[in-house]
Design goal:
71% of the residues lie in helices and 0% in strands.
Length: 108
């Protein structure tokens, strides 16, 4: 499987700006049509460009959805939860190990 193409930030911004300008010039132009037209010109696949435009609209509050910053925060919190669950499992295993090791006849 080939590695995903990485597009420079400048190209992403330019392509999204061109899509917005094309839609402003022709109000009847759909997002899909604008994305296909501009994508061919700048060398970006239409699906990729459509995703960028949709995410930009979400980040700007023009469209409902999870913003980029919220998605990053959710990802970090999920990683923290995984780490805490792992730590709890280790502590539970250690406490049960030491509980078996203790002799019930000892006063403590």
């Amino acid at each position: 499987m080939p590695a995903p193409r990485m597009y420079p930030q400048e190209l992403r911004e330019r392509a999204m700006r061109l899509v917005q300008e094309a839609r402003r010039e022709d109000p009847e132009l759909s997002l899909n049509a604008a994305v296909v037209r501009i994508g061919r010109r700048v060398g970006v696949t239409s699906d990729r460009l459509r995703g960028w435009c949709k995410q930009a609209a979400i980040d700007a509050g023009e469209r409902p959805g999870t913003t980029t910053s919220d998605a990053q925060r959710i990802k970090a919190l999920e990683a923290e939860v995984r780490e805490l669950k792992r730590a709890n499992e280790i502590l539970l295993a250690a406490s049960s190990f030491f509980a078996r090791e203790l002799d019930p006849r000892l006063p403590w």
